[in-house]
Amino acid sequence: MRRAVCPGSFDPLTRGHLDIIARAAALYDEVVVAVLHNEAKSGLFTPGERVAMIERAVADLPASPSSARGVADVRVVESSGRLLVDLCREVGADVIVKGLRGEADYAYELPMALMNRDLTGIETVFLPCDPRFVHVSSSLVKEVARYGGDVAPFLTPDVLDAVRSRLRGDPA
Ligand code: PNS
Prior knowledge:
By secondary structure, this protein is an alpha/beta fold. It is built from 6 helices and 5 strands.
């Protein structure tokens, strides 16, 4: 059983994230998507809201070839106030999977990958992002949406609704 963790802040989930999760699900027996708190970022959505959005999005992913359940073997957890490596140990993950959009991502991700390996020996596997999403980030999507730009191509319809509603100030 090979289990991978796909960590991130996912505020909110983008189609770029979803592509990486789907590709990880095709490579590993199970993928645990971990919604983590990033000290440097303040959130539009609560961790619980992000988990719920990701759960709805991954429910529509196609089955991986090894899946016995007929759906992709992906589950979503929230993890705050602890290290990613501790979550990986708890869920029995062999590997961390992250997407890379370019050099800036590599510069950001490399120290974390090396630190995580120093801490517990866990390896990080980087997947090159789909070129369609190379410019897509949660932060940019929020900024464009906040000023009325069209972010529909970068989000699932469910996440798009949630972003529009939150930016309008609708009650949760
Ligand atoms: O989506 P992001 O912001 O790129 O994700 C970064 C994240 C949340 C994966 C990273 O900040 C993280 O792993 N946080 C958990 C706490 C931790 O383990 N920090 C040390 C990393 S070496």
